[in-house]
Write a structure and sequence with these properties.
By secondary structure, this protein is mostly helical. It is built from 16 helices and two strands. It has one domain. Strands 1-2 form a two-stranded antiparallel ribbon. The relative contact order is 0.17. Bound molecules: calcium ion. Calcium ion (CA) binds next to loops.
């Protein structure tokens, strides 16, 4: 989803550092972080040295988050510095994803079944937001295999880990412990990436804490992608705050509920310019879908799946 706008390596490569330079950086950093990760098989562990979240906690409290809540959250045993989520970040290769897998008969049959099971919610979204059920279903198929692959990492850990790299000391500790003698990348290059990424992650972490507080959800209850996207629709927290809706009208926006996810996707696309029948105009439809995920491979796959679903639907 939009998640991937700011978080995947495709957009990383589009950064001002220059595509080639960042690709080199990504590959080298990934390669060495991955090797280090494989060497001891540990994913979430404290950084060597001082508490990696110390500065982050102070910053959150200074920015108005409740001190006892922040201290309590970061003292929980499941909270850990997920250095492998950093390496996975570099592993992600948008162009290498096989989108054809979503066009197999088996995938399309499952999607067709989903259209039937969630017909009511999909029809309501179509009438309120003008987004065809086939488009919403195609997005849910590609994002999370219809809600069956929603990520294994605690969203809180993923965002906290990336945000912690904004602190010079934590970043330095990470460099010293895991990259300095192994990575074929300069400290300056790593610093530049970490500064940009951590700023994004801090903003998303704040949005995540605001969302969980407003909806009375446990911040440690949600798992998501290595990029901090959550739920069936894979929204990043700032998009959750802005575009998510309570589709099943139970008083809580929970993107692990299908009806909430369906309506949230439809609202998101509507707010970004989707109109009824837009899927028949490929170029205009692509422009809106690219707001959801910046990859043209992705947007193209969504339209192909939706098109196939519409055809089988009419038969
Ligand atoms: Ca709900």
């Amino acid at each position: 989803m939009e998640t991937n706008l700011e978080t995947n390596s495709t957009s990383l490569f589009r950064s001002s550092f220059g595509r080639a330079a960042m690709r080199f950086l990504a590959i080298t950093v990934f390669g060495f972080v991955w090797l280090v990760g494989c060497a001891d098989g540990v994913s979430g562990e404290p950084l060597k040295g001082p508490d990696p979240f110390a500065a982050l906690k102070t910053r959150l409290i200074r920015d108005g988050f409740d001190r006892p809540l922040i201290r309590s959250l970061y003292s929980k045993p499941e909270v850990a510095f997920e250095r492998q989520s950093i390496s996975t970040y570099f592993l992600h290769r948008e162009a290498a994803l096989n989108y054809d897998q979503f066009l197999t008969r088996s995938s399309l049959d499952k999607a067709k079944d989903y259209l039937g099971r969630h017909q009511k919610a999909l029809e309501r979204s179509q009438s309120v937001y003008g987004v065809e059920g086939e488009i919403v279903t195609a997005i849910i198929l590609v994002e999370t295999r219809l809600g069956t692959f929603i990520g294994k990492r605690l969203v809180f850990n993923t965002l906290s880990t990336l945000a912690a790299l904004g602190d010079k000391d934590s970043r330095g500790s990470f460099w010293e412990a895991y990259l300095k003698d192994k990575a074929d990348v300069s400290k300056k290059q790593f610093d530049a990436w970490a500064a940009r990424k951590s700023a994004w992650a801090y903003s998303e972490l704040k949005a995540y804490l605001e969302y969980t507080k407003a909806q009375e959800l446990d911040p440690l209850s949600m798992r998501g992608s290595f990029a901090g996207a959550l739920g069936i629709a894979q929204f990043i927290p700032s998009s959750v705050l802005q575009f998510a809706r309570d589709g099943n009208q139970d008083g809580q926006i929970n993107l692990f509920d299908h009806e909430d996810a369906i309506e949230s996707i439809a609202n998101y696309l509507n707010q970004h310019g989707w109109k009824p029948g837009l899927s028949r105009n490929r170029n205009e439809a692509l422009q809106v879908l690219l707001r959801y995920n910046q990859s043209t491979y992705y947007a193209d796959a969504i339209l192909k799946v939706a098109n196939r679903l519409s055809k089988t639907h009419q038969q």
